[in-house]
Amino acid sequence: MAWFWADAPSNSNIDGSARSSGKLTCPVSGGSSDQSACPVMHASKGRDKLNGGSLLNPLNNMPAFISSKKQPGQKLDLPEDRSLSSIPRGSDGVTNWEYPSPQQMYNAMVRKGKIDPNTGEEIPEDAVESMVFVHNFLNEGCWQEVLEWEKPYTDKTHVAPRLLKFTGRPDQLSPRARWYALLGKLFPSYYSGEHPFDRHDWVVLRADPMSADPENPGFKKIRYVIDFYGGPDDEEGFPSFNLDVRPALDNSSNAKDRFIRYTKPIIDEYFGGANK
Fold first, then answer.
1. pLDDT band at residue 152 using 50, 70 and 90 as cut-offs
2. In the chain, what are the domain boundaries?
3. How far apart are the first and last CA of the chain?
4. Where are the beta strands (DSSP E) in the chain?
5. Which residue intervals make up region (Disordered) (predicted)?
6. Pick from 190, 216, 194, 193: which is nearest to 205 by CA?
7. Which of these, 53, 80, 30, 108, lies nearest to 117 by C-alpha position?
8. DSSP structure string for 220-259
C-alpha cells in the first residue's frame, strides 16, 4: 500500500478483533494476494537494479526516477499529476510525502513486468486510476491509525510525528498474522484465518527531547507493522479493508503501549464507572 513518491536525498548520488481497529470502506474494488495489487517496489532477487542499473531509493524502495511519459502502445492518456498526502516527511517535517501519478504507477508496473506492455492483460490501463485511488485511500487510513497510537506522546510534546521511511514486505507474515491464521484453523467460527494481502513496515519519528539519535536529533524511531486485510463488502456492495496497525514489539515501551491500548476498553467498561 505504501507507495509514496520519494525524491532522492540532496546529498545522494542516485538519479473484527484487534485488527478491525482500522476498518475502511472504499468505493473502488481492490485487494489481492498478488504483489501486482501493490506497486511498492518490493525487493527481489537480482532486480534491485532495474533497466540499466537504476538504483532504488532507500526511503521507499523505489527507483530514484520513474518517467511520467506515456508507454509505447499505451492507448489511454493517464493523468500525470501527483497528489500530496497528509503525511509529513521525516526528512524535514515540513514537506509531505507525495503519491505517484497514475502514469508513474503504470510505468513502474511495466518496469516490474506486472503489465505486459503489448497486451496490458494483467492490469488494464483503465484500472490504474482506481488503483491509485485505493492505495492513497488506504495509506491515509494507516496514517490516521498511527496518529491515534502517537497521540499520548504528541499531547506531551506538542510535536507531530513524521514518517521517515517504509518497506513493503508482502511475503513475510508478521507474528500476529501467523497467530490469526492459526486461530482461524482452531476456531473457524470466530476467526477467518485469512492471510493479509500485504504488509508494510513504517518507521515513524516520535518527538523525544532525550533522544540521542545523531541522524534525527530530538526524535526517536518507532517501527510500525501494518497488515492489510480484505473485508466483506458493505451493505451497498463496496469492498472494505481492515488495517492492523500497531507498534512493533521492538522494545518494552512499544509493548507497554500495546498493552494499554488493547486493555483500555475492558478497563473502562468494568472499572471506569468507579471514578465517576
1. very high
2. 18-275
3. 43
4. 22-25, 56-57, 62-63, 84-88, 96-98, 162-168, 198-207, 219-231, 240-247
5. 1-45, 69-98
6. 216
7. 108
8. EEEEEEEEEEEE---TTS--EEEEEEEE-SSSHHHHHHHH
Q: What are 232's three cell numbers?
A: 466483506
- Give the mean pLDDT of 181-194: 87
What are the grid coordinates assigned to 28, written together? Answer: 473502488
Report CA torsion sign: 165, 5, 137, 175: negative
| Pairwise CA distance, residues 197 & 199, whole Å | 7
> Each residue of 47-62: pLDDT tens digit?
344 334 445 555 555 5
Among 82, 100, 183, 97, CA closest to 142: 97
Q: What is the pLDDT of residues 132-143, one digit of tens each?
A: 888 888 999 999
Q: How many helices (H) and strands (E) does the chain have?
A: 4, 9
Burial of 87 (0-12, 13-18, 19+ CB in 10 A): buried
pLDDT in tens, 226-264: 999 988 777 777 778 889 999 999 999 999 999 999 998
- DSSP three-state, residue 201: strand
Calculate the alpha carbon distances from 224 to 102, 145, 245, 250 in Å. Answer: 27, 10, 7, 10
Q: pLDDT band at residue 118, thresholds of 50, 70 and 90?
A: low
Asked if 146 and 87 touch (Cβ cutoff 8 Å), the reply is: no
74-97 per-position pLDDT tens digit: 888 888 888 889 999 887 778 888
pTM: 0.75
Instruction: Report the 3 state secondary structure along 204-219.
Output: EEEECCCCCCCCCCCE
Cross-strand partners of 44: none
Q: How confident is the model at residue 153 (pLDDT cuts 50, 70, 90)?
A: very high
